[in-house]
Each structure stands twice: as structure tokens, then as C-alpha cells.
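Help: read this over?
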Amino acid sequence: MRKTPSRVALYLEPKQIASTVSVNISRAEREALEEVNARVTAGESLSSILGFVFDTTRDVFPCDRISVAFLEDGGHRVVSYCTKSIYQPTQLGDGYAEDLRRSSLAAVLKTGRIRIIDDLRAYQRRKPSSVSTELLLHEG
């Protein structure tokens, strides 16, 4: 019997997510999205909005951290601006920056595909030069 290799990273087209989410969204999820929209339009800070998203969506999207980063230097550098987590300290947090030319994130941004990494240790074995992966593993 041939063993199927375990999936390390999954890449999805945004429309794959949108078609599933729009059909199966619950009332509570819809209300949370409406509240996020209201907070964004009210001009609340990025930190406040991200904190709200993190706190209210963890039942829907279980996670222990969330981060927002932006592209700088003409799209050649990614910089983390805001991180929320259930633990402290974070190693890969606010102010962390990385050159995209050395990052697999460049391909994600170029294709617009969503990347889900199921096994960070396996991903590190495949991409041992990834500083961000190493920092996330140190966080636990």
C-alpha cells in the first residue's frame, strides 16, 4: 500500500474560500463581520480592529495568534505592524521585517493564492532558511 505524504501547506484560490463562506455563514459570523465593518468605517485603530477580530472570530477560525503586515519599499519588503496573541512574548511581532525576495510569501502575493501551513515543523524542514518560520516555532 502506497503511503500518501502528509500535506504541509495548502494553497487556495480566494474564490474557493469565498464560495464556501458566503453560502455557509452563520448569523453570528455575519454579525461579527458587520461589527468589523462598522469599526473600520468608524476609523478605529488597526490594533483595536485586529484585537476585535481576534477575540470574536476564534470560535470560527481557531488560532492562537493573528498578525497584519504591509508591503513597503515598492513591494520588496514585508513589515509586521500589529500582532495579537493569547501568549507573550511573541518573537515574530510588531516591527518584524523581511525582504520578500528571500521569502516564499512572494509567490503567495504574486499569485493571490491563500497559503495554509498545516505543519510548521515540516515546513521548516522544507524551507530551513526561513527566519519567520524559526521565530514562530520559538513562540511555541
Q: What stands out?
A: The helical segments are 14-23, 27-41, 46-57, 105-111, 120-126, 131-139. Residues 27-41 form the longest helix (15 residues).
